[in-house]
Amino acid sequence: MVNLFSTVTKYLCILFIVLYSYCNFRILSLRREENARTLCGLQFQIILLIHLLFSAVILLKTEDPMLLLFYFAQLAFFLIYRFLFRRIYRNVNQLLLNNVCLFLCYGFIMLERLNLNKSLKQYVIAVAASFLSLLIPFLIDKIWDLAKYRLYFAGIGIFFLLLVFGIGVTSYGARMSLSIGGFSFQLSELVKISFVLSLSGFLYQARRFREILPAAAIAGAHILILVLCKDLGSALIFFLSFLVMLYIATNRSAYLFLGGIAMSFAAVLSYFLFQHVRTRFFAWKDPWADMSDRGYQITQSLFAIGTGGFFGLGLFQGLPNKIPIVEKDFIISAISEEMGAVTAICLTLLCLGCFMQMMMIATYMEFSFYKLAAVGLAMQYIAQVFLTIGGAVKFIPSTGVTLPFVSYGGSSLIASFFVFSLIQALYIIQGNEDEAEEEGEERESCERGGAAAFFQKAMRGQEMAAGTGKSDYGKESALSDYEDFDEEGEEDFEEEEGIGPEAEKRDLSGKEGRKKGGRNGR
Amino acid sequence: MEDKERKRSNSGILKMIYFFSLLFFCMIGYMIYFIGWQAPDLMGSPYNSRMEVFDRRFIRGAILSSDGQVLARTETEGDTEKRVYPYGSLFAHSVGYSTKGKTGLEAAANFYLMESNINPLRQLFRELTDRKSPGDNVVTTLDTGLQKAASDALGERAGAVICMEPSTGKILAMVSYPGFDPNSIREDWEELTDEKNVSGNLVNRATQGLYPPGSTFKTLIALEYFREHPTDWQDFRFQCKGAYVDEEDPKYVVHCYNGEVHGKEDLKSAYANSCNSAFAKLGTELDRERLRGLADSLLFNQDLPIQILSSRSRFKIDGSSGTWTMMQSAIGQGETMMSPLHSLLITSAIANGGVLHEPVLIQEVESADGHSVKSFGSGEERRLLSESEAEELKQFMRAVVSEGTASKLKSKSYEACGKTGSAEYQSRGKSKTDAWFTGFAPMQDPKLAVCVLVEDGETGGRTAAPIAKAVFDYWINR
To answer: Do B35 and A305 count as a contact with CB atoms less than 8 A apart?
Structure first.
């Protein structure tokens, strides 16, 4: 009977995650806020359903009543976290919020199945980090001009990294973490954020070559220390984010080109300098030649993925614990083995979706410091996802980085929460500003005496009372003549891929179009 | 101005999105390719402990011969399952066993045998009622009739016979003697692995046995000579006096077999007579580096493309090799070692106009209710030598049968081609000879390539060639 339930759950959850992913990309392409909102609600229900089904399987398989308690604790966390975020910040990006919950859900379930203790730890850290990160949008709003602290960010980052270099603990050939009182901290995870903020501060006004030198020096210092620590995965992520930020700030693709060449040289050099790079390269090139030693980890990961196939073996039916450090670097292999490669592929696509959403938020930022910051953080995120999933499926040599929100690891989890809250902060603040702007404009049009505009404003008031939200749809339903303009604006918007300074220049309705695009996060 | 800049930086952002989307789709494409196409061949590995998980869900499928006979099947009685091999030791090495670990096809096709493609509803129903589903059946390329003919021809002599269809790469028979009975491997295990047992019953001599190739290696020397003398190799002349003495160092002497004197020869007749003197002289003249390159391109020093366990053949000549080493190597003695499978692959490429079809052992996977799950066509193609080189070597190998050392293969019903070899080696102070024959027939439209190796035989022509003849006779006159 348990087997039956487990099998049915397996297929149902695959169906659900596919549906969820469909919603995700549908939302990214939707223009109407209202429809997007309905879909976001549906997404969250899917998360709860997947969570319920998998938790039930775990409960039935382990027959440990304490896990029932743990299930409710997790459920409470999802509900409260989402509720609070939406309650405190009206203009929160629901898509990112949902994705965080989904990734956490898969992380919790998989860790619970792999190692109960670790999942409990992960849960506690998630709760603490999430509530701490709730403050971030508030703080950013208060301080706003973070750019002037750029030197402090650089200083803190370099200091932390030096600390790790000086007194850090070595594991798997790289010096990556500090150990204090039994807890180990992977400081480079947090330094990623200060790194991006500092570089944005130096780059956002840089136009000439001379002006980018300080940023380059700071980036160089970070990366150099990371290389000295032999933490090459992080060094690569830092370098990539620097490169793309530089490109976006200066609009010169020559930097990308030069950076690419530099990276190739560095890769070849590191191959000759570092033993563990060579090992991993060989393990990638032909893991089957040495399955018992060098290729052990990667072949175990491939066995997990290959044996699991597209639909997985079902929870507790595979042997994911055979993969060394499965709960960190190879969590995606464990998911693929037991929940199916379809699930793993959906999660990969969802990570890509998050990246798209973050980049879209970057296009939507008016203050170019934050635009750069969003680009930098998004780049780090996607690079990390690519390195970990690509490594697990042998698309690229494995580098030993974690999958944000899914993998086990306190530092990674905390940093991921901070990054996503920072992006949320930018979205929320920009949204609030746009709203204020619109209100000003609407007041004008009201004075010009449009009864329709008055009606629209009344609608808005209602919405706000209901505490749900956003601004631009009252008009769509109430004003037929505005509707036409709206469509036009949207078309413009589409041509310019959601950028639309021209649309902004046109008229009210054109501007609306841009806004909506941005809001829905195209 | 600012708007313009913003627009430009936003288009940069868009490019990044496109770039990473593309990258991710490549990665996902790779994942799908890996799971759908690569995984089935890799998952059967003994390092993959996950396969045992399937034991709880599926009844292991059967292994069938290409002519529909059952070579291995699982019989269930109540809760106990037993793997039965109706042909006993006949297919011991190719089909293998799955009771003490897994070998042969039991290992190579493990993934398919432990997967069930019966009607999904039926499967679900069985799952619900806690019954195992029957695994898929694997149809091999092996033919019971040919296997039996080869086994009978070899008799009770230690050695191997392996047969392949040159135009497809299908392995039709694979015999290794002495063998074992896979039905009772568990009971016999102690005895088979006992230190005192030196007969190596568990070794598949056809793929894992390494032997000095003897005169069969002259094919490579002749080929290298073609390549170094593309226009004037036909002008090669040699006066055989029964031995060749190195001009610089008279210590180095190579004798023809039994001290036979072959007289005046060109390259073809020297090959047909298997004249050691002529080839030893050739060996001293050839470019060492190029010869090594040729050997490597003919699959020496690398894993052979086959799904079951095989050994790498060894060829160690390099730029620094001395005259004596070259004289020895040219006649297939010295450090060179080769497996019968490897010899068969080179022969098969010659038979097939220079193109090797990599060997295949699995023809089809069928579900338990009989529909085809996956079909395997011919083995992947790989060109080992040019068409004209293959044609010349065919003529050479024909001469071996019509006027040379393999005269035992003369037949009225088909024209066979081949090369014999008699490799001497020292075993416990005694000099022994491994007898080789590798060849194909019929000459114009090769249907079968065969490699025979008999340990401690007389000569290739006398011991191995008749075995090959019996196999050809059976297959071509069938």
So the answer is: yes
